[in-house]
Design brief:
The complex is a heterodimer. Chain A is mainly beta. Chain A has no helices and eleven strands. Chain A has strands at residues 3-7, 11-12, 18-25, 34-39, 45-51, 58-60, 68-73, 78-83, 92-99, 109-112, 116-120. In chain A, strands 2, 4, 5, 6, 9, 10 and 11 form a seven-stranded mixed beta sheet that branches. A four-stranded antiparallel beta sheet of chain A has the order 1-3-8-7, with no helix packed on it. In chain B, the strands form two sheets. In chain B, strands 2, 4, 5, 6, 9, 10 and 11 form a seven-stranded mixed beta sheet that branches. The chains are: A mainly beta, B mainly beta.
Chain lengths: 122, 109
Amino acid sequence: EVQLVESGGVVVQPGGSLRLSCAASGFTFDDYTMHWVRQAPGKGLEWVSLISWDGGSTYYADSVKGRFTISRDNSKNSLYLQMNSLRTEDTALYYCAKSSGVVITEGPFDYWGQGTLVTVSS
Amino acid sequence: EIVLTQSPATLSLSPGERATLSCRASQSVSSYLAWYQQKPGQAPRLLIYDASNRATGIPARFSGSGSGTDFTLTISSLEPEDFAVYYCQQRSNWPPRFTFGPGTKVDIK
């Protein structure tokens, strides 16, 4: 059974930093592109970032480019999101999601974690 | 940047009725469109990919159609568990980007 478990969400002040983690199991982690998607309270879904199977390619939404860094450790079956210079508008539930494909633009998101809540507030 | 528009914003129907949800793209996305269902307090669930393919385990009452800029998700006969928010999503190849529509809420009439 595929499982994605996010952690690391807390309350942080504007300008602060945070690192989210996603532990994956039930599939061959290093076969797939992985994503972070966020959802502000009561709002829709926003794609944040993706990383290729080997970590060699990363892409970001314009709203987080230059502030967030996605990474992965295939030896630990783990995905990460380093979030710097946090803003109040970054407040959201952050989901990690598995792509159904290897190619970075291939496939929809076929499995999602339950999310970890990041609150940016003074 | 491709923008997705979903209509209606809210669809009020009774169990057993047919639901028709629309997703329109600001420019052609070929058939690279997916649909997700999200219930309160839950993560999204993939329903349809590449416009018309049902994901694993998705009941046959869910179907998708369309290509280019106009897409439809149809639920042939609503079950109580189908009342939820539905999002469409597209992907673009370069630069790699994934965009979600604003969602359609299907609620009980």
